[in-house]
Amino acid sequence: MVDIKETVKAMCDAFPGGRSAMAGALGMSRTTFDNNLYEKNGCRFFEFAELEAMQEMSGTTLLAEYNADKVGLLLTSIPRPAELDRVELFNQSVDVAAKSGHVDQQIQESIADDGVIDADEQAEIMKLHMQHLAARDEYVRSVIALHKKVDARSVQLQASGASINRVE
């Protein structure tokens, strides 16, 4: 598992200009940022809102991934139906198959020499397995989103730009 400090560093690496630019975007100096990161000179670690801002500015999901991993949850993407078509579904299915193969390959390599899976090998297998499950979940959700039965009137209203107010 990656620790929170490594997650912050990775978000900074993904941000144009790196740690100094991230510090400036948060309204603090690089020194203050580093003191918060390493909890030095009496500084506290970042508040959750600051961590969320870093994730947003870095354009990543690293904080969400860290939190999901910390409690053993699977983080998956929610498909956007407007971006889906049959070609995208095919690409997703190929990605799912490739990730499944990576899991199997890692298992094979792990037991090939000595017949056992050590802690490092287990961590790698589980990392690849979670990536496979996330890709599979996204694919299934995408298939459903693309082929979901919809009410024709709602589609017509949405296409016209009219607001849809449903009373039940």
What does this 3D model show about the protein?
- The protein is mainly alpha-helical.
- The protein has two domains: 4-70; 81-158.
- The chain has helices at residues 4-14, 18-25, 30-38, 48-58, 62-70, 86-112, 119-147, 152-160.
- α1 (4-14) packs parallel to α4 (48-58) and α6 runs antiparallel to α7 (119-147).
- The longest helix is centred in the last third of the chain and has 29 residues, at 119-147.
- The protein is flat and about 60 Å long.
- The mean pLDDT is 90.
Summary tags:
single chain; about 170 residues; mainly alpha; flat
User: So what's the oligomer here?
Assistant: single chain
Radius of gyration, in angstroms, nearest whole number: 22 Å
Number of helices, counting only DSSP H or I runs of 4 residues or more? 8
Number of DSSP strand runs: 0
Residue share in helix: 55-70%
Strand content: under 5%
- The helix/strand series, from N terminus to C terminus, equals HHHHHHHH
What class, by secondary structure content? mainly alpha
Report how far the terminal alpha carbons are from each other. Answer: 46 Å
Shape: flat
Largest sheet: number of strands, sense, barrel closure: none
- How many structural domains in the coordinates? 2
Mean pLDDT across all residues, rounded?
90
